[in-house]
Amino acid sequence: MNHRARKRFGQNFLQDLSIIERMLAAMRLERDDPVVEVGPGLGALTLPLLERLDRLAVVEIDRDLIQLLEARNLDGLTIHNGDVMKFDFNALAAELAGSAPTEHSLRVVGNLPYNIGTPLLIQLLDCHEQIRDVHVMLQKEVVDRLHADPGTRAFGRLSVLMQSVFEVTPLFTVPPESFDPAPKVQSAVVRLKPRTDAPDKAFLAALQACTRIAFASKRKTLRNNFKGYLDEAALENLQINPQARAETLNLEAFYRIAKQLGDVQA
Ligand code: SAM
């Protein structure tokens, strides 16, 4: 198909059929699953998805690609033209579920544009109650951060927030040659499933504030990053070493701080 890949929209189109098959196999689709694909592009995932589903919603920002998709008149496909960062996943979940929307129904899939991978994941935190699972291709480095353990180089704010809300399962790595044009970096597919004990909205807000402060300056100790919010004694009371750095704390330690801190404006 004649389309020049647009860098600003992170367009790296999947070419490798075996990767597409592996991604779809990992999803274990049922025909009536409510699925939304982010960034269908030229349809590498869209067409095989539609073969396995009664209906599919897609969100695409590039009008030229929308036109190409529309021209195909694909049965069961609903096309949303716009920026997925401004997209209302809650409304879509209700729409796809019909008259009786249920929690944890929406299945999200996509080969995500690199430039919005991380912000989109952060956005999904807020609508995790509508989500059943997420299967997305991301830069491998981002997937490494998603499931990093405390004390490792990749562990950071994204790890804490995502691991609090989702069970994170890295599935497989994908080399640059699987795409056209080939990106400069390795990619990886990851599965996210909302945890049954995911924090409620208020606590998630507190955790977001707490991690923003804790990781504000990665080289600083917790005592310095929390200056003006929590003093050394308060950290010690929470059994947290004020001289430690944020990347060494486990999730429970962040929960203790977030509870103490509440929803401060960080
Ligand atoms: N799914 C196709 C594939 O695997 O070949 C295309 C993947 S390509 C990496 C990313 C797709 O997301 C492109 O089609 C791009 O136009 C679209 N996209 C980029 N930014 C977007 C945004 N903010 N909202 C919706 N779609 C976006």
TrEMBL record:
- The species this protein belongs to is Granulosicoccus antarcticus IMCC3135
CDD domains found in the cross-reference section: AdoMet_MTases
One GO cellular component this record assigns the protein to is: cytosol
Which of the seven top EC classes does this enzyme belong to?
A: transferase
NCBIfam families on file: ksgA (TIGR00755)
> Which family does this protein fall into?
Belongs to the class I-like SAM-binding methyltransferase superfamily. rRNA adenine N(6)-methyltransferase family. RsmA subfamily.
- State the protein's purpose: Specifically dimethylates two adjacent adenosines (A1518 and A1519) in the loop of a conserved hairpin near the 3'-end of 16S rRNA in the 30S particle. May play a critical role in biogenesis of 30S subunits.
Q: Output the lineage of the source organism.
A: Bacteria, Pseudomonadati, Pseudomonadota, Gammaproteobacteria, Chromatiales
Name the record gives this protein: Ribosomal RNA small subunit methyltransferase A
What are the entry keywords? Cytoplasm, Methyltransferase, RNA-binding, rRNA processing, S-adenosyl-L-methionine, Transferase
- Catalytic activity entry: adenosine(1518)/adenosine(1519) in 16S rRNA + 4 S-adenosyl-L-methionine = N(6)-dimethyladenosine(1518)/N(6)-dimethyladenosine(1519) in 16S rRNA + 4 S-adenosyl-L-homocysteine + 4 H(+)
Annotated residues that bind S-adenosyl-L-methionine are located at: N12, L14, G39, E60, D83, N111
Tell me a Gene Ontology molecular-function term this record carries. 16S rRNA (adenine(1518)-N(6)/adenine(1519)-N(6))-dimethyltransferase activity
Q: Which SMART domains match?
A: rADc
Q: Which residues form the Ribosomal RNA adenine methylase transferase N-terminal domain?
A: 19-196
Its predominant location is cytoplasm
Entry's localization field: Cytoplasm
EC no. given is 2.1.1.182
